[in-house]
Amino acid sequence: MNRIEWPFLSRGLVAILRxxxxxxxxxxxxxxxxxxxxxxEVPLNSPDPFRSIEALRMAMPDDVLVxxxxxxxxxxxxxxxxxxxxxxxxxxxxxxxxRRSVERGMVTMPGVFTPSEALLAVRLGASAxxxxxxxxxxxxxxxxxxxxxxxxxxxxxxxxxxxxxFDLFQDAGVSVFGLGSSLYKAGLDAAExxxxxxxxxxxxxxxxxxxxx
Length: 213
Prior knowledge:
By secondary structure, this protein is an alpha/beta fold. The protein has a single domain (13-212), classed as TIM Barrel (Alpha-Beta Barrel). It is built from 8 helices and 9 strands. It has a 9-stranded parallel beta sheet. Helix 5 links the parallel strand 6 (111-112) and strand 7. It is globular and about 45 Å long. The termini are far apart. 44% of the residues are buried.
C-alpha cells in the first residue's frame, strides 16, 4: 500500500484545537503559527469542525499542515478532503479509514497503544504513529514498542503531554508531539493560546539546541 511520508515541519509540534468554534479558529491558529507551530488539527467532535478546517485552509499559508482529529468514518475522510484538509488523525487504527485516507493521498497519524496496533498501522501505510494516551504508556512503554517497528517509523505522542515532557519522550524516540489541553481548551482566547504556543516552541528549541550543542 502506498504511504504518504510525514512532511517536514520546522518543529515536531501539532496543535490540537478540540472544541474550537469556526468564528474563532482563524485568530487562534494565526497566534499558533506566529509562535512557530506548523501543524493544526481540529477534532471532529468540535463545533462545526469542517467549516473550521475550511476556514483554516483558506487563511493559513500553504506550508501549514491542516487537518482533522478523531476521524472514525470513511465518509469523514472524504469530507475532510473536500474542506481542504491534508492531515488525518484518529484515536484508533481502523483499516477502512486508513485505506480510504491513503487512497486519497492524506498524511495519516492513527492512534495506537500496543505492538499489534502499531505494526498494523505501519502495514496499512501510516505516515506516523500516534501513541495514545502517551501519558499512560510513558517513555519506557513507547521505547519498548519502538524496538520492534521498522527503522525510520515516525513516532508521535499525544495525550497528557506538555512541554515539560519533551526531553524524556524524545529520548524514547518520539519526534512529533500533539499538544491538546496544555495548549488549547475551549474558551481560551488567541492571546492566551499564543502565549502557551510560544512557551512550547521555546521548550522545543531549547531541547533541540541542547542536542546540537
